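Lecture notes, part 5. Sequence design as translation. It can be helpful to think of inverse folding as translation between two languages: the language of shapes and the language of residues. The source text, in structure tokens, appears below.
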């Protein structure tokens, strides 16, 4: 990695082939009505390729292919060891194509190449490996029952699983869903975000090459309409969604209007990062606070977008956070030295700038606040920090999904917990303190699916369930618990005499 330069990646990018057609039943197809949309790189505004703008015909074809493959048991009926072997081959192919896939993520979503090569692509392969390795080791139960009965509890795949995902980690967020769903024996229809469809379309071909049968894994590029049609479809048994809370609410309604499909939601956040005056290492806390909001351009569901700091250390901490934030100077994401790339597209770019304007009116700007232009035609925003006097301010309450940090001040630990929990969201939270009892008490009180103590965003492996309280969603991605989302529990009672 260290020897690879901007010129190296630019050459590779110039030689890259793009595939923009839908992947249905083991083949690429254009949209039936020929409609396409332009896939634009946020690095410089260049059109990368035309992408099939799928509609009802493609949704019908993909769901039918998934249903057929499920009903004929070409995948679900295989010995779990055979599914494991195919999934491991797929992961190995993804690792073999790591540079190509990392480039697709970087060009399509503006993410730094150092992150797509170290996190997105290896993380995707690892997710597949993790569930592949697990699936032939999980059995059912023989439960206590009357003497004349044999009682079995087994898990069965649910059927056709649709996954609708966002653009901030295009492959990784998808893998957190399709890896457990496929390992459990389901057939999958994946709808990547219209802002970042290319990597999913590429790995689909690799799935077939690995021996996953046609129809078991399908990919439909397109807009929200494709997601809506999948969520309304009577032959989709489960819809696993990652995205905004607003769309999550709609998806629940579509399920209610159609077949009450299982709906699993991983939604937004406005996560509090609390630093108490007794924090043992302010330098480390400051670096983590900057990483929590500026990594991936702040396009993180778990972004530590609210920094809650105890009054007596406020100046000392903020000086350090500002110094740490300067490391995230926006630059060309193809440059391995770049830690902050481009905002995913013009819509999100303008949305973030709109929040910064709102912030100027209600808070004191400490750093950044402007669009910058390291590459002509691209969408870049400086790391931005506001000191926010009112917790009820727009920038301190709403998810921005960009590099904008709101700093709030508190005097007591109780006040910090109150401020932290005063949110419609509950995805993640962090506490920095040297007092172990204080740490445990606060971790208990924080209404969030993940709580970090004296760290932020650690634990990137698959062992921790990931998801939210409140309007950050339901269910959990990652860990063995995720398999519960993609399986039905069956009780079988056998009368012995
Ligand atoms: P989004 O809700 O706009 O879109 C997500 C997906 O839903 C896209 O594929 C989109 O095409 C589709 N969609 C849009 N309208 C739809 C509709 N009416 N019916 C069905 N599908 C529809 O979100 P986004 O802008 O892509 O992503 C950002 C959001 O995702 C943020 O709120 C972020 O917090 C959240 N997110 C959450 C997690 C998590 O694990 N909790 C992880 C990453 C991102």
């Amino acid at each position: 990695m260290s020897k690879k330069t901007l010129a190296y990646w630019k050459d590779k990018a110039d030689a890259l082939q793009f595939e923009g057609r839908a992947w249905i039943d083991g083949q690429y197809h254009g949209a039936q009505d020929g409609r396409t949309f332009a896939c634009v790189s946020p690095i410089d505004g260049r059109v990368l390729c035309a992408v099939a703008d799928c509609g009802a015909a493609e949704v019908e074809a993909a769901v039918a292919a998934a249903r057929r493959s499920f009903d004929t048991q070409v995948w679900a009926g295989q010995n779990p060891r055979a599914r494991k072997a195919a999934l491991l081959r797929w992961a190995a192919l993804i690792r073999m194509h790591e540079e190509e896939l990392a480039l697709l993520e970087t060009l399509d979503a503006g993410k730094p190449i150092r992150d797509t090569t170290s996190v997105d692509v290896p993380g995707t392969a690892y997710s597949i490996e993790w569930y592949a390795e697990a699936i032939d080791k999980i059995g059912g139960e023989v439960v206590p029952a009357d003497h004349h009965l044999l009682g079995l509890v087994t898990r069965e795949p649910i059927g056709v699983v649709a996954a609708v995902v966002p653009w901030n980690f295009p492959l990784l967020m998808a893998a957190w869903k399709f890896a457990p769903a496929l390992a459990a024996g389901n057939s999958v229809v994946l709808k990547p975000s219209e802002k970042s469809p290319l990597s999913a379309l590429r790995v689909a071909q690799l799935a077939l090459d690995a021996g996953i049968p046609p129809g078991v894994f399908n990919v439909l590029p397109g807009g929200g309409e494709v997601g809506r049609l999948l969520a309304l479809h009577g032959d989709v048994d489960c819809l696993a969604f990652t995205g905004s809370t607003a769309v999550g609410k709609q998806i629940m309604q579509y399920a209610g209007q159609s077949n009450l499909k299982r709906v699993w939601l991983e939604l937004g956040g406005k996560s509090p990062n609390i630093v108490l005056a007794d924090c043992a290492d302010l330098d480390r806390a400051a670096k983590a606070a900057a990483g929590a909001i500026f990594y991936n351009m702040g396009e993180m569901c778990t972004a530590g977008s609210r920094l809650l700091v105890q009054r007596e250390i406020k100046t000392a901490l903020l000086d350090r956070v500002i110094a740490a934030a300067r490391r995230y100077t926006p630059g060309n994401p193809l440059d391995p030295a770049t830690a902050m790339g481009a905002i995913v597209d013009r819509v999100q770019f303008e949305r973030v700038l709109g929040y910064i304007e709102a912030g100027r009116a209600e808070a004191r700007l400490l750093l950044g606040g402007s669009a910058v232009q390291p590459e002509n035609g691209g969408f870049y925003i400086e790391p931005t920090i506001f000191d926010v006097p009112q917790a009820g301010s727009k920038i301190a309450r709403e998810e921005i999904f960009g590099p904008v940090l709101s700093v709030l001040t508190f005097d007591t630990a109780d006040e910090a917990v109150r401020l932290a929990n005063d949110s419609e969201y509950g995805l993640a939270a962090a506490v920095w303190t040297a007092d172990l009892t204080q740490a445990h008490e606060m971790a208990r009180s924080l209404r969030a699916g993940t709580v970090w103590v004296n760290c932020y965003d650690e634990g990137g492996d698959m062992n921790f369930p990931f998801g939210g309280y409140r309007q950050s969603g339901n269910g959990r991605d990652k860990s063995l618990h995720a398999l519960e989302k993609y399986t039905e529990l069956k009780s079988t009672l056998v009368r012995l005499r």
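The translated text above is only one of many valid answers, since several sequences can fold into similar shapes. DSSP finds 15 helices and 21 strands in the chain.
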